[in-house]
Design brief:
This protein is an alpha/beta fold. It has 13 helices and 18 strands. It has helices spanning 41-48, 98-101, 142-146, 149-162, 179-191, 202-211, 224-231, 249-255, 277-282, 295-306, 329-337, 350-355, 378-389, and strands spanning 2-5, 16-19, 29-39, 65-73, 85-88, 91-92, 112-113, 125-129, 133-135, 170-173, 194-199, 215-218, 237-242, 256-264, 286-289, 319-325, 344-348, 376-377. Strands 3, 4, 5, 8, 9, 16, 17 and 18 form an eight-stranded mixed β-sheet that branches. A six-stranded parallel β-sheet has the order 12-11-10-13-14-15, with helices on both faces. It has a two-stranded antiparallel ribbon with strand order 1-2. The chain starts with a strand and ends in a 23-residue tail after the last helix.
Length: 412
Amino acid sequence: MKAVMHTRHGGPSTLELRELPDPEPGPGEVLIAVRAAGVNRLDLLQRQGPGVLPGFSLPHIPGMDISGDIIGLGPGVDGRHIGDRVVVNPGVACGTCAECTIGQDAYCSNVQIIGGNRPGGYAELVAVPATHTHVLPPGTSHVAAAALPTAYGMAWQALVVRGELRADETVLVHGGGSGVSMAAVHIARRIGARTIVTSGSDEKLAHMAQVGAHATINNRTEDVAARARELTDGVGVDLVLDHVGPALFQASLHSLRLRGRLVFCGDTTGATAAFHLPHAFHCGITLLGAGSCGYADFGAMIDFCFGDGGGIEGELEPVVDTLLPLAEAAVAHHRLESGETKGKIVLLPGNAALRASGQRTNPVARASKSIPAVSSSASSVGRRIAGAIDERPPTAPPQPESAATPKVPTHS
């Protein structure tokens, strides 16, 4: 098989397309022909070095977000069949540590991450546990599915599992333009909550309004906390989702209503945040850390996104920034590092990429230049290239396992 790997740490040029032996599915595993693989910031961090996850080693094949077709079954696999079209849950808990035995597998101390500390989806083939595959409903493209696992899983964990976001609440989301922020807007809208999104780019804010944000704030030219309170009649927002870190941490606290909740799940602007303690405890603010989804939470997120089984549609359509063939993984990394993305970057391995070449970006492997994006909802992208990516018509699968307004009113 062809796969993209890196044998050393460094820049995007360390990513190499190589011919490797085909993986063999072990007991309880399935072999997947990868049709689409999402690109994530963890891929960049581990490529730059040192490895972030325990157990990471070189050489390494990145790629946590995988959608494809099952083409092989290992011993003991039940409930999955050759030809099933699936999306992969990348977090594989050990099942035996103290956290796993009490049902807290999201905090497993021995977790393996497909594409993180075991081989991932920047490849034509990947072997994964059958229990961590979820069958796609007919009509759901592999590109749309590959945009889900990390971005939607993180947004789901932050908003639903930890933040307990409710209908009619207002949530402030930082980092407009990222996959997590777009997923958060989609999930919040479907729950019935209102969203305010911040970014330092007016272009990204305009895009977030198109995606479904009720209001936006430019965090470089406006006072985030003052504007958030203005948009909520002086009350403040119910919940803040912060995946950028210290840059907006204090502003997030001042944007909250009394007894509001701040959920944080990222550190792109630094690893240490300082804030004014008296304000936080006098206002009864709750600070909540959110990590990755556990097995049950991931399944609930997939079920939520797939709804009645008709596929991903409506306000849950993932936004795809760029499509690229697997061989241009380095260009994908440059694109993500540029900070100019508006949605997910998705790699297309093998023949899928060749047949979808009309939808991919300018190859420009000379990636120091600006790379033009293909920006579209996943449903429209998926419908245009679904025939090219899906090499066989979908069979009936088994059930899976598991415009901005000037003011955003809130209840008091």
